[in-house]
Amino acid sequence: MEPWEMREWHAEYLDACNRHDLDAIRSFVDPAVRRAHLPGGADAWIADLADLFDAFPDWQWRRIQLVAEEDRLAAHVRGGGTHVGAYRGLAPTRRHVNVAEFAMYRVTGGRIIEFSGSVSRFEILDQLTGSSASR
Q1: 14 near 77, Cβ under 8 Å?
Q2: Is the CB of residue 82 less than 8 Å from the CB of residue 70?
Q3: Fewer CB near the last or first residue (10 Å), C or N of the chain?
């Protein structure tokens, strides 16, 4: 894909994420996707997002910056939502969180085959509990 195509691809991916459309999201992720420091595979990817969406049904991302080069995308997004369901063992707090996320994707054939980046769950827990003790 050309860089402009990668930008459009990411916009479509982010739109599917913001609709919380797990089937559409799955179509962007290779079944055997590798994720640094996280369980691999599309099923694990979808399960993580399902947990997030259950706990934060209004969760949305906004793209801040995107850099495309060859088969790689570097994305800086902000995500946030209101905690109304259990998340990582924490009962709903009704607190709103807003976190920065940085990700590097390797995309082949329109699907994410590799992912690495910051995992915001620690920052989310920090904002929900009001401390950094959740790490």
Answers
A1: yes
A2: no
A3: C
